[in-house]
Automatic annotation (TrEMBL):
Keyword rRNA processing: yes
Organism: Gossypium trilobum
GO CC annotation: nucleus; preribosome, small subunit precursor
Region entry Disordered, spans: 338-376, 433-469, 484-537
Name this protein carries in UniProt: Ribosomal RNA processing protein 1 homolog
Family: Belongs to the RRP1 family.
Assigned keywords, A-Z: Nucleus, rRNA processing
Presence of the UniProt keyword rRNA processing in the record: yes
Subcellular localization, as worded in the UniProt entry: Nucleus
Highest taxon of source: Eukaryota
Length: 559
């Protein structure tokens, strides 16, 4: 390896493909953080060996977090390299993926799909870093197309081509809007691919995931413009629809479909795309709508600084009015919170008119009550508010004194000092409002039932306790609805009138007792044995006939 010691290159590649994760991590750090960014050029054979080790480094990566971290490290180095080295790094990556694609099993396929997606995204980041230079873009797109769609190698890596065609628009979408020339350089190769390749699946992928999307969004954009609906400029319908309407794809597909060099098997699909884009462009012309790709200055987006316009200061009276609105909002907001808490306290009382046991209260000092609403002086000291024009507000002693007077007036109008339950009135346990209530014993020493409440007289309760109706969920079991009637076994005589027995079922059924009614079945009779006995009797009868005839013959001869 150029620039490394003797024997260090093969050792590094072996560590990249090692089974031990710590060894792989060390090798990746030394390669991506130290050695590779410091190189100006690397031989093709050396880069192929490096990518062989990196491929099996991804192969051994297990679990999604580790896979994602490794894939992000490998792809993010692409924009950081020199332009020539970055294109070589990307082209050898595509070659390695096509070469090893047939050996990837279905369990590891998803992480290699993610690897291709991340590299394609960083490929566009690299183009953006070059300020979308047209010459560098043409070189880069040529590397992408020659390494995948029209590659002349013998590898069976068509899955790489299909995946890139499927995700191309998804990955280029965050970089829009772009100039018309840039969009033409990005999408024009797909038009030429349809006339060259003979893979029907690839033609279908490019048509459905690239050009059909442009046709559908263009048609949708015309419908929205005709109906007068407002659409966000960053919406996919506007971005892709504008490209489909303005780029003139109908002429390009017609020239491709009528040329001699067009693949005969793809000519029908190419001319069908020509008709779809031609109809779309005619609809745009008939409606008379002006749609164009915006001119964007990609190179100076981050360097632009908004120009600040100085605005003269305001008088003390205007400042006090602005801050007074903030004080009114704070006061009304705290009053609303207090009324909500009082409603909750009233809702906690029972239906029978009794109230819960009086809980211990922590007395609130007047200073704590004042902390519920921010004073204008606190607003002035803690936060320096800004008005819509962008100039800051300066607080003087006269402004603060005027605000205090206005605050007292607003507090009197809202009724902040009225008898409204606040957070200080609620029972607290260790500084927090207690939400649970233990069941207390009554005066006679027994615990209250489900529907009863304990407490003092009506005048002593504070209305903050809660009933036990909402505390727990009661589950009742009724034996009446869980019984199955079953007749006696054996049945008693008809002269006796006995009630039937009951058997529990469902959750009340004990282990060993069959559920539901039990039917008495008559014992099965063995029919086979009876049939055999009849056959034996018949055989015996048949065998007796020759003996009878023989005895008759003997008697006749003796006489």
């Amino acid at each position: 390896m150029a620039g490394s010691g003797a024997g260090e290159g093969p050792t590094l590649i072996k560590q990249l493909a090692a089974c031990d994760k710590s060894s792989r991590d060390r090798a990746v750090r030394s390669l991506l953080d130290g050695w590779l960014p410091s190189q100006s050029e690397v031989s093709d054979e050396e880069m192929k060996r490096l990518w062989k080790g990196l491929f099996y480094c991804v192969w051994h990566a297990d679990k999604l977090p580790a896979q994602t971290d490794l894939i992000n490290k490998l792809s993010s180095v692409l924009p950081k390299l020199e332009p020539g080295l970055s294109l070589q790094y990307f082209s050898v990556f595509l070659l390695t993926m096509r070469r090893e694609w047939t050996g990837i099993d279905k369990l590891r396929l998803d992480k290699f799909y993610l690897l291709i997606r991340r590299f394609l995204n960083c490929f566009f980041v690299m183009l953006k870093k070059s300020s979308w230079d047209l010459d560098f873009m043409r070189r880069s797109i040529r590397v992408l197309v020659d390494g995948t769609f029209i590659a002349d190698d013998k590898f069976q890596g068509n899955g790489v081509n299909y995946h890139i065609a499927s995700i191309f628009l998804e990955e280029i979408r965050p970089f829009f809007p772009l100039r018309k020339e840039v969009v033409e350089v990005l999408l024009e190769p797909f038009v030429g691919i349809l006339g060259k390749v003979g893979d029907k699946v690839l033609v279908g992928k490019i048509r459905s995931n690239v050009f059909d999307v442009l046709v559908k969004t263009g048609r949708r954009l015309l419908e929205l413009k005709q109906s007068g609906e407002e659409v966000d400029e960053s919406d996919d319908v506007v971005v892709f629809g504008t490209i489909g309407l303005v780029m003139g794809f109908s002429t390009k597909f017609y020239e491709l479909g009528s040329s001699v060099d067009c693949c005969q098997g793809n000519r029908k699909a190419v001319l069908a795309l020509h008709e779809e884009f031609l109809k779309l462009e005619k609809d745009l012309t008939s409606l008379g709508i002006d749609i164009s790709i915006p001119e964007v200055n990609e190179g100076n987006e981050e360097d632009e600084v908004p120009e600040l316009i100085p605005v003269g200061g305001e008088t003390d009276a205007n400042v006090s009015n602005d801050v007074l609105e903030l004080v009114e909002v704070n006061i009304t907001g705290s009053a609303k919170k207090a009324t909500k808490k009082s409603k909750k306290a009233k809702k906690a009382t029972g239906d029978n008119g009794k109230k819960t046991k009086k809980s211990k209260k922590t007395e609130c000092s007047p200073a704590d009550q004042e902390n519920d609403v921010k004073l204008p002086a606190e607003v002035a000291s803690s936060n320096i508010e800004q008005n819509g024009d962008g100039d800051s507000i300066t607080f003087t002693e006269s402004v603060i004194s005027n605000l205090q007077l206005q605050f007292e007036k607003v507090a009197a109008e809202v009724g902040l000092n009225s008898d409204v339950a606040t957070a200080c009135d609620l029972p607290k346990v260790n500084g927090a409002v207690s939400k649970k209530r233990k069941r207390a014993k009554g005066a006679n020493g027994r615990k209250p039932q489900n529907g009863e409440l304990t407490g003092e007289a009506d005048g002593e309760g504070d209305g903050t306790a809660k009933t036990c109706e909402n505390s727990t969920k009661r589950v009742r079991f009724s034996m009446k609805s869980n019984l199955v009637w079953k007749p006696h076994s054996p049945l008693p005589p008809l002269s006796l009138r006995l009630p039937p027995s009951v058997t529990p079922r469902g959750s009340a059924l004990k282990q060993g007792i069959p559920p539901g009614p039990i039917k008495e079945m008559a014992p099965m009779t063995k029919k086979g044995k009876k049939a055999k006995s009849v056959k034996k009797a018949r055989k015996v009868i048949k065998s007796m006939y020759p003996l009878v005839k023989r005895t008759k013959k003997l008697k006749s001869t003796s006489s």
